[in-house]
Amino acid sequence: MKKSLITFLTVAGLAATAFGSAETELKAIEQQWLDAYMKGDAAFIKNLEADDYTVVEPDGTVTTKAQDVKAVTDKTFILKSASMSDTKVMSMGDNYACVTAMLKMNGSDDGKEFSGDFRGIDCFEKKAGKWQATYSQLTKVEKEKK
């Protein structure tokens, strides 16, 4: 019994350490991703997003990785400023996680200016030791419920 308890505590401790590491890593990736959009760094975005990556935009349309990278490359999507808050990482095993956050952003998309608060979720899969974004969704927040 004592040996089982020690084994359990060791495994639980390792799992907590691994999650803490993944949480720190994913929060850093989220900031780098946001910075890449602001810098127009399409190469970073292309490298981070999985080949089958999709994002559900605030208006409900679905954008693929190819469309996302092209919009940054062609400068039809320009992110002028962005900040993240209330960032939370939810681990779903060793190789899957989702990150939620509040985003305050402004820029232009297809020549139309946008600004405001958005709630976002990004899902990741760890492939060959590297996190890749597989799915995202952004929702415009008109006002927070109290």
What features would you describe in this structure?
The protein contains three helices and six strands. The relative contact order is 0.16. It has one domain (2-141): Nuclear Transport Factor 2, Chain: A (Roll), CATH 3.10.450. The chain has helices spanning 2-39, 42-48, 65-73; strands spanning 49-56, 62-64, 77-91, 96-109, 112-127, 130-141. A six-stranded mixed β-sheet has the order 2-1-6-5-4-3. β1 and β2 form a beta hairpin. 37% of the residues lie in helices and 47% in strands. It is α+β, with helices and mostly antiparallel strands. The N and C termini lie far apart (48 Å).
Topology summary:
Blueprint: H1 2-39, H2 42-48, E1 49-56, E2 62-64, H3 65-73, E3 77-91, E4 96-109, E5 112-127, E6 130-141
Helix pairs in contact: 2-3
